Amino acid sequence: MSTFAPRPVPVALIGLGGVGKAILSQLLSPPLNSRFNLILIANSRQSISLPLPAAPITPTNFSPILEQHGNPLDVASILSLLSNHPDAPGIFIDSTGSDLIPSIYPQILAMGINIVTPNKKAASSSLSLWDDVISKTYPNTPTMYYGESTVGAGLPILSTLKDLVATGDEIEKIEGVFSGTLSYIFNEFSKVEGGDVKFSQVVQIAKDKGYTEPDPRDDLSGTDVARKLTILSRLIPTSPALPEGYASVPTQSLVPDVLSNASTKEEYLERLAEGDDYFDKIREEARKEGQVVRYVGVIDLKQGKVECKLGKYPTDHAFATALKGSDNIISFTTQRYSPRPLVIQGAGAGADVTAMGVTSDLVKIHERLTTRA
Amino acid sequence: MSTFAPRPVPVALIGLGGVGKAILSQLLSPPLNSRFNLILIANSRQSISLPLPAAPITPTNFSPILEQHGNPLDVASILSLLSNHPDAPGIFIDSTGSDLIPSIYPQILAMGINIVTPNKKAASSSLSLWDDVISKTYPNTPTMYYGESTVGAGLPILSTLKDLVATGDEIEKIEGVFSGTLSYIFNEFSKVEGGDVKFSQVVQIAKDKGYTEPDPRDDLSGTDVARKLTILSRLIPTSPALPEGYASVPTQSLVPDVLSNASTKEEYLERLAEGDDYFDKIREEARKEGQVVRYVGVIDLKQGKVECKLGKYPTDHAFATALKGSDNIISFTTQRYSPRPLVIQGAGAGADVTAMGVTSDLVKIHERLTTRA
Questions:
Q1: Residues from chain A contacting residue B5 (CB–CB below 8 Å)
Q2: Which of A210, A319, B16, B197 has the smallest set of CB atoms within 10 Å of its CB?
């Protein structure tokens, strides 16, 4: 036998918020720590090269170290560090919420640096940026971009869609509850067993539990769901073009007209109850038909439509019965998976599962870079 | 830009039953036909090298061509064809139900030939054979073995479990309905809304619809489920050893004592109704507790148990409400996915979806072999 041993791949991690910290924690622990060589971490202001001369970095000690010993963030020098590493090609993990870094993905990829990211911006904004990313990645070049965690966090949503497409299945429809926040809100507001809780109360509870963005309108606008549909849609050869990305997706907002003039988050939250009549009516109408209300994203290839909307589902539908808490549920109806779809369900948000989506992408790149002797 | 273009990988396909034919069909169609170079097909008696001198092979013309122009099957010469191909390393697809071919996987892998298979034998029989396969595959060598379709057909079950394990999640429990046949039988026999159909009637209908093996006892023995649990269990570092594979898994048989002396398939089918009392009692007992009956496989890492058994589930449990037809449903409870599990559901049997499990493995190998320039 030869003495084959896959080498560790160099990795730089930018962005150390909740998800970034969870990625760091997974990367520093077995079994991932033997596959990767973390050569740099950075937050939005500072970066530090690794390993440190003294004690090793840990998920708990990095913050004061970065504060005291970090250098001002300089993306160009991070990229040069990665591309000149003796074990290059390496991987750039963008765990920021930045718009700026995604805009330079094409340049990063052109340097032969692979990218893994939970940041939805590049894949869900203008088609020209996304086309530029595609032109600079496999199979057009040997360089890779992976963004599994941009839809469904750690759930295998993009990988499943890629498998269906790559093996020649024909996608007919993708339908799902893609927002953990909106899943929770409607699972509580419109229950199979009934109930008369007010929409404003549910939103307030969701906010208090930390399930919403600081301004809940960022969830209720549906924009996050529209971004996810854009990402999925672009993996399907026969789907609509969406030139402006998520902004091209017809998206029903859950901020009712009566509240559209609330100018601040505070005013909106204060006046939240003014929207209750609007949602009461919707729930009542559904209830009369024996249905519940869910906020869903739909890609319907037969109709050539991509949209985010409030949908009504019978009380024995999986979106009504099987869906719990803040879970995502996504169903794929295809030529092979019909009439019954392939369904994937589980937590679609949270730092640990989102980080897992990122680190499982890292593993795939590691395997692809180290399979040949 | 360089003129990077991933090369087609040479593939030999052995086994041309229902699944083999569906694999052939997918391999000969876009988009897979540009990724792979099918250099040989074989059934259990004959093989033929490709391309043919005259017309191209198709999923409909291969059978008479093989009959008239094929050579007697000689596995050694197939392996030598693959390993001497100018574009080696190639892939050997074992779509047979054979015991013999899996027993030589270690030799095939030692030649640097990658293996993809829907055949459960190597991964679910003796641990020594499986250990031998592992020792001859990545990360111990550059050679790969993939068997996604051995559990859940085209559903992403093994890939999801591998991702969870590789990223450091801790598996607590895997529980599911793993047999399409037994899913159908119990979804019909023990419904949420009740009903008094006899077990023997449901088995007869399932047999008439072609959902069962020619001898339904091959499904009702639970052996197929025990094989699937063995395959899953061996991917989990902390799971029980199962030295004899599926034969080490405690497995409840659905052939009741009163029928255990039926010596032939015909006698068994004739006397099927003698077992109805047994199943009526089980259903009635569950019904009194507001539960339904399902045949499940369970890997419980906290209890260190792997078992196949009749389980009882509340009528609002996903195994009762969400499960339809002959679908599989598999739930993963892990440190990250708890208390609510990650759940995957959909058709778990059928030629097209099983073939998709095989061809999605081929794609992964193709990517791993062709990523570097």
A1: 139
A2: A210
